[in-house]
Every structure is written in structure tokens, then in C-alpha cells.
Amino acid sequence: MTMKRALLGIGAVAVALGVAGCSTAVANNSSTSSATANTGAASTTTSNSVLTIGGAIQGSYTSKNFNPFVSTSIDTKGLIYEPLFYVDMVNNKTWSLLGEKYAWSKGSTVLTVQLRHGVKWSDGKPFTANDVAFSFNIIKKYPAADQNGVWGILKSVQVVNPYTVRFTLQRPDVPDAVHILEQPIVPQHIWSKVKGDVTKTLNSNPVGTGPYVLGQFSPQAVFFRANPNYWGGKPAVSEVKVPVYSTNEVGIMAIEQGEVDWGGTPIPGIQKQFVSRDPAHNHYWYPTTSNVLLYTNLSDPTLKDLAVRKAISAAINREQLSMLAENGFEPVATPTGLLSSQKSFQDPSLPKSDNALTFSPSQAEKDLTADGYKKDGSGFFAKDGKEINLTITTVAGWTDYDQIASMIAQNLKSVGINASVQEGQYNSVSSELSAHKYQLAVLFSNSGPGPYFFYDGLLNPSSSMDYEGYQNSSTTALLQQYAAATTMAGQKKIAYKLESIVANDLPSIPLLQAASWYEYNTTRFTGWPSQTNPYADPMPGGMDEGIILTHLKPVK
Question: Which stretch is the leader sequence (predicted)?
Fold first, then answer.
């Protein structure tokens, strides 16, 4: 189980923007497409002019709701609505969208953004700094619209001139400022006419600056047409279809049968069920974008003992978890929590023992024995007459996580740690973790294209994902220094120290690197991101869609 960045809210953000004050790459082809002129009619057949994206599993679209301030609406971020910049999850690249460049000043508390000239809204009105200021002030007025908690770090927004905006932060916080740069911008001349709470409107006819505009809508599918006046040039993909599916199985079948050009659902036996059907055109790539953790409640008398946490870690067969629960597509995590894509952040002097996690049941038993534990008559470790008895919480229906939890319980029992699994609904599990009313839990971590947010979520007592309750004033100070660092060298220097803390203190136990699911077919379109050309997070949904679609071209 993994969740697309847009669903993770404030946790799913980047740190790459810390390298500030420089111009960033343009996020689109500047080519004007030679695609056939769009008539505005929604296509009804699969062709080289219509690209199909595997859509939601919800039966049907219940309403024509394209409100970018509501997480439950039909997603238009990246397609119709754009932010100032976007930081990619896979390769740490900062894409310049409505903003051209930005710079930090006054001790990383002031962020000044220079806007792109010549941008027009899809209704022909000019885009200016007033639209940017309005977009931020409206989510301040209606906090429910502030999906990423922007005003938790923002103090004020000031229009300097028609193409310059100045953001003043409440405190130095370079990584969190990505929420500012990635906030979708809406047209003031449209949204200023909305009466009352902006989260209550459907926004059925969205007007944006993005590469696409709304085409036809039905409960079964939404069509988007290429924006002929897009600032980056009209996209070569003239039309995008996003159908909706009744079940996961129906969605997977559509991918396997070639009805979908771009999918984002893990396919069991993908080599046989998908690739082998058309090896020349059917492809997949599952890059890692976050961690799967075994969270540990450090207020629990047993689990606050580091020796017990080390024993638990040593007892877990992660290779088995990867192969059996995730079909080998989610590799074993690292002791530091760094992902495969974040190797450039790894401390070159890191001890060898901190580079890889080791499966060693014998070491687990040695750790507990050295800590004063002995096996009782039932074969389980106990101390002072109290047996270790742990419950692993997981979300019911998240089948891979449920399987991981069951396998860990068996691993622990095999070394003499009594453990069982408890499943619950996501909301209740999340509440239990936030209230520290659990022992162990299998869940995803904070994530982003740099390590800051993983460490902040895990080690910061003020984080919304501080499920384990880790408390260390020195570590908190390091996170504050990281937040104020505006250079990559400065960030890495602090990251090295945090890596050692995570590897040695085991605030929670890394299990696997979570994958971003992605299948694609090159029969009709080329230019897809791949392992050899990882220019964007390839899983459908969110800002990446606009970036990827403007890189694709129909096969002639």
C-alpha cells in the first residue's frame, strides 16, 4: 500500500527547494504540437489523439466537482491548476511553472518569487501576482481550503509588482516552504465571485493556467482537452480520458488489455499478466518514494528499551516481506531511512553496520538475553516475571500491510517474542497512533524528494506523524538547523547526523521502501518517464500529470 503525494497532505513534501536563489528548469516542452486540431468533442475510441489514464476505483463520478481546494473532488492539479513550482519526488528536480525563480533573504524567513510573464488563464485573462496573493489569502480566510497547512508557516503575502510576490514566514523553514511553492493558484476574477466558503462550491467549469482544459464529463469518464493557449505551447497529446472503474480488478483488466495507456495500480504477476502480452510496448517502473515502518510506541515500558527494539529489528526477515507481501517490488529499507533515490545524501563515513539491515534471529535472542530477559515455560522472553507480549496494529483491507504484520508476528514468535496482529479502519488506526495508544504498527512514513520530511516526521515532537513519541532536544535542534539551511551542502551536513541517530536509536523500525506504482504502454504515445529517464514521479495523480503529459508525443 502506498498513497500518492497529493493524498499525504503536509507530510508529503520536498526539501530540494532549499537550494535557493537559482533559476529552475522549465517544466514543459516549448514545442507547439503538430497534433490534429481539437474539435472539442470527447473521443469515444482509443486512438493516438486520446491518452487514457487509469482512473479512480469508486463506481462512478458522483458530481461534476473540480474544486482544487477539496481533496475529494476530481483531480485537476497539474492538468488545469498549476502552482508556482513543483519539486519532483523521484529525482529532486524543481520544475518552474507559474514562477520563474525564487530567492531567500532575512535569515530564511522571506521568500521572493519572480513570476512567469505572458501567462493567460484559459479564458484569456492575464495571470498576475494579484492571483497569487488572492489564492493564499482565500485559504487563510477559509482554513478548510488550506489542505497543506500553508498558514501554519506563513505570516504574510505581499504583491511587490505584477510579477513579483513576497512571502514572509513565521520562522526559518526552507523545507516546509515547498507547501507555498506548490499551492495551486486560482484566478481572482473567478473565485472572488464565489459567495461564502470556497470549499462548498463545485467549480464545475474550471478555469486554470495548466496545459489542459475541461472537455466532456459523464459519471463514467472525464475528458480534458489540450489548452491551445498554454504558456508552454499546446501539448502534443490533444485529449486525455480519465475513466472510473467499479473495482480494482476491472481497473487492472483495463491496463492488461491495453485499454489504458498510463496505469497506477500494482498488478499481481505483472511480468506474465501485463508485460508478456506485448513486451515491445508494455512496461512498468516502480520507483521508491517513501518508507514502510514498524512504528514503535516509545511510551510503552517494553518498547522504550532500545535492546528490545534492536531485537525486534534483527528478528524481522525483510527480504521475505518484500518478496511475499510486495512481489519483490518494494526493496528492503535502509537503517537510516534513506531511499535508493537519496544516496547522494548518505554520509560517506557512515559505519558499514549502518548501511544495511540484517536478519539475524540469533542476534535478536542475544540482545534480549544480554538485557536480562529469559525464556519462560511458554518459550517466550520475560523479565521480572513479565512476558513480552506485543500487538501489531495495521489497517484492515490493506492486504500487503496486513500480510507484513502477520509475517512480523511470526518472525517475533520464532525468536521468543509473543506477538499478535490487530486490524482496524484507517481513521481509527491513525487516531490510535496520534494518541500513542498502540504498541507496534505497520504504516507508511512521511516522504519527499529529500530526507528532511522523513526525519522531521519521525523525530520532531511537533510533527503530526510523531507516532512513536521520540524526544531528544539535540535532535530537535538539528531539525531546526536543517529547516533554516538554504544550501544543499548545509542540508547534507545535518542529514549525516540525523542518519546516525535513526540508525542507532531506532525510534521506529524501517521495513521496506514503498513503491510508486506505474505501468505504461508505448503503442500510442512515447516520452514516458522510466528508470533510464526518471524525470518525474510516474504514478498518476497530482502535479506530475501535467509535467508528464507535456513530455509525451503521439506515435505517428
Answer: 1-27
DSSP type of residue 245: B
Q: Which residues of 399-416 are buried (b: 16+ CB within 10 A; e: fewer)?
A: ebbbbbbbbbbebbeebb
Contact (Cβ atoms closer than 8 angstroms) between residue 398 and residue 425: no
Cα–Cα distance list, 450 to 15, 331, 384 (Å): 5, 18, 44
pTM of structure:
0.82
What is the C-alpha separation between 496 and 346, in angstroms, rounded? 7
Q: Among all chains, which residue has been given the C-alpha cell 528536480?
A: 93
The alpha helices in 257-349, defined as continuous H runs, are: 270-273, 306-315, 318-320, 326
Type of residue numbered 234: K
For residue range 162-179, list pLDDT tens digits in order: 999 999 999 998 988 988
User: For cell 516509545, what's the residue?
Assistant: 298
Give 370-419 pLDDT, tens digit per residue.
Answer: 999 999 999 999 999 999 999 999 999 888 999 999 999 999 999 999 99
Amino acid at 199: T
Residues whose CB falls within 8 Å of the CB of residue 57, separated by 6 or more in sequence, listed in order:
244, 245, 246, 247, 248, 251
Based on C-alpha coordinates, what's the Rg of the chain?
24
Helix (H, G, I), strand (E, B) or coil at 32: coil
Calpha distance 198→441 (Å, rounded): 37
